[in-house]
Design goal:
The chain is about 35% helix and about 15% strand. It is of the alpha/beta class. The strands form three sheets. It has an eight-stranded parallel sheet with strand order 10-9-8-7-6-5-4-11. Strands 1-2 form a two-stranded antiparallel sheet. The longest helix has 17 residues, at about 280-295. The chain is globular, with a radius of gyration of 18 Å. It binds phosphoenolpyruvate (PEP) and manganese (II) ion. The site of phosphoenolpyruvate (PEP) has 9 residues, from loops.
């Protein structure tokens, strides 16, 4: 591990925004002008002119759902599927129908990956699940609630796998880059930032808990070296707004998107107001392709 001389650091002037001193002394690896790409495979790259879309349901509910989702993605030439087998919930109480599929869910993702030649994104909630998840996942997601779980960041970094680090809904970019620094200092530079909405007083609908901070996209791209993706689904919690927020993110320069979709959103075991149905998702991919092309980017 690289040893950094911290003898000249002070915390006398704590600030919520990033100062020149922060860039030099605290955010040494995450800031800087050099642009980095994160290559998932020969034809999936974050941080270049491609905009990869990651899509799928919130949870790996069962095999049938994941097969149906995978078929839709293949039809649209989308290459990365999402779905969590381990899932943090805001409240500890679970409905009778909800159950985390855990290692069984990871086995389903493994089959999907092989049958459909898709890349897999899934969330790591705890270090104890990391071994099983790493066997299947191509990209490890750190959820917003774990953004500053520093032990977890370290262990996930050591896998050397690409990581999506979601910004906590109450954190500054300074804190986000500080968390990133914990990953980078372990030598893993396969890092992708994700903006997923922030808490603000008014979200314009009582079901919407967060609002997408579109401004964070160019801000992060200006500050950091790493690709920035957008999650319009968790930001709005409301499927009808997801297309606008997706297009706004593309216009703001995002390097990728993560979108929730489900065969039957109403039956989604978690957050049923949020996922797009297959038809809505297909329309969104079509318009996203057009808009991206105008901007010299390419949806994959
Ligand atoms: C998710 O991606 O399903 C998720 C829980 O996201 P977040 O951590 O941003 O709420
Ligand atoms: Mn979700």
């Amino acid at each position: 591990m690289k040893i950094i001389n911290i003898s000249n650091l002070t915390n006398k002037n704590p600030t919520k925004d990033i100062t020149e001193d922060d860039k030099k002394n605290k955010l040494i690896l995450s800031t800087g002008k050099k642009k980095r790409i994160v290559k998932i495979s020969k034809n999936i790259i974050f941080g270049g002119n491609q905009i990869p879309i990651i899509a799928g349901p919130n949870g790996v509910e069962n095999k049938k759902l994941m097969v149906d989702v995978a078929k839709q993605l293949k039809k649209l030439k989308i290459k990365i599927i999402r779905g969590h087998a381990y899932k943090p919930l805001t409240f500890p109480y679970r409905s009778k129908t909800y159950k985390e599929t855990q290692s069984e869910g990871m086995d389903i993702m493994d089959q999907i990956k092989k049958e459909f030649n898709l890349k897999v994104v899934t969330e790591v909630t705890e270090i104890r699940y990391l071994d099983r998840i790493s066997k299947t996942a191509d990209i490890l997601q750190i959820g917003s609630r774990n953004m500053q779980n520093l032990e977890l960041l370290r262990e996930v970094s050591l896998t050397k796998k690409p990581i999506i680090l979601k910004r906590h809904f109450g954190s500054s970019l300074r804190d986000l880059l500080g968390a990133a620094e914990h990953i980078l200092v372990e030598g893993n530079f396969n890092l992708i930032f994700c903006e997923r909405g922030v808490s603000i007083p008014h979200t314009h609908r009582d079901t919407s808990r967060f609002a997408l901070d579109v401004q964070a996209i160019p801000a992060l791209k200006e500050l950091s070296q790493f690709p920035v993706i957008s999650d319009p689904s968790h930001a709005s919690f409301w499927a009808p707004w997801v297309p606008s927020l997706t297009l706004a993110s593309i216009a703001a320069g995002c390097d990728g998107l993560i979108v929730e979709m489900h065969r039957n959103p109403k039956k989604s075991l978690v957050d049923p107001l949020q996922p797009l149905n297959f038809n809505q998702f297909s329309n969104l991919v079509k318009i996203s392709k057009k808009i991206s092309k105008v901007l010299g980017r390419k949806i994959v």
